[in-house]
Amino acid sequence: MSQGMVVLVGAGPGDPGLITRRGESILRRAEVLVYDHLVSHELIRLAPASAKRIYVGKSRGHHEMSQSQINQVLCDEAKAGHFVVRLKGGDPFVFGRGAEEAEVLFEAGIPFRIVPGVTAGIGALAYAGLPVTHREYASSVTFVTGHDDPDLPQCRADWPLLAKFHGTIVVYMGVTRLCRIAQVLIQHGKSPDTPVAMVERGSWPGQKVAVSSLREVADPQVALPVKPPALVMIGEVVHSQSKLDWWSRLPLAGQTVLMTRPESETHEDVEQLEENGAEVLLAPTITVRPADDPTELDSSISKLNEFDWLVFTSANGVRFFIERIFQLGKDLRVLGHIRLAAIGPATTQALKKFGLNADLVPTKYQSEDLARLLAEHVQGKSVLMARANRGRTILKDQLSGIARQVVQVTAYNNADSLAFDEDILDRLRLGTIDWVTLTSSAIARRFISMLPDDFQIEKLQKIKFASISAITSASAREVGIEPVVEAQEGSFEGLFKAIVSYQMNDKSKATV
Fold first, then answer.
1. Catalytic residue among 36, 91, 269, 434
2. pLDDT tens, 283-296?
3. Between the CA atoms of 13, 19, 23 and 24, what dihedral angle is there, to the nearest 10 degrees?
């Protein structure tokens, strides 16, 4: 068997968007993924479904594996001929023991590569509005571990010397010993008024920032407002935090949103949520795939010259219909004579990606409104509707008595997902999910049916559900879900605006 390889990849401080392009590319090629405790689940999902996943996380008071065991896993998997990705929080070479692991691989004759990451001491602090250098406050910075007892001779950090350092001190793993560290710094000349910032889970949705002083944190009677994992910044640059705290001002900062749409439909929506501060979890309740039997679809495409209107009720309908045109060896010239109707902006945008413009779009994005609008244009005409294998038949029912011909063809299949991932279920049980999006009646019903029999339904009372339309809301209520917000326009953009409006009002009330 050929020799494998190990790539040590820095995952960044928490936000999955902070991984490098190189890191993401390597993750997508993994045959074996060995990952730490402080790594986003969204990054773990980037590895192929076929990849073997090995959790070796270390948290305070609990080690899934010792370092020697981790080293052995890396060697064994590489020697078995696998492409191994070792995914580590932050940067592998900054307090990440990456150098130790690479040395073991070298001694074993195993090829390895290093993909740097954004270290928490810069990235996580930036999310907290804390620059490590600043023209007015600090022209130098030092990174130090707070893991060792400052009173022991073997302590690797020279705290008496650091007390005389005029730059910024960033302490990794320093919260547990912060009281004694502060005492030692003051004892050796550091001003007790020196500001201190503590950042818990920096760049994660649950990020917490507290600003204090050396005097306050040196008092053993004062309980620290943060807990591990946390970073500590000591220095005058902390004064800039109140102005530079950009993250907490985002409308969805600290909110976790569970997306239940098919994964193929979520990319731009996820970016929009994340750019506004939300953590986004993906738990598709429905999967989308090509029609099981494309015979009817192919027949309709071959007879497009017989139709006056082509109607799309989803972006997926556009994608699968047009891709099938290409698969049959044809091109978009077959649509040259036909008029196009789209149910809403997402469907319209899907058409634009193929260089097509919709001739007709209703102002309200639901089947009833599209049917009323089409009724004015299709009298005596022939209509082809490309849609999913299941769903409401409102369009066909209302147009059949008006148009000369209405043909409904399956362009793609909606299939139910089997179950939620265990980590999603755990978060639903613990109440650490703030929002769940409901973007169709089928998704609302499927969400409830995917919960295991032993799930305590009252746990859902802590969660805010966001509905895309009145029809979806009605279906949600039928299965026991009461939406907190409902989009004014039936699109994800409308849903997003409804969630943001709710959160902004909630923040306003909190400050009154």
1. 36
2. 888 888 898 899 99
3. 130
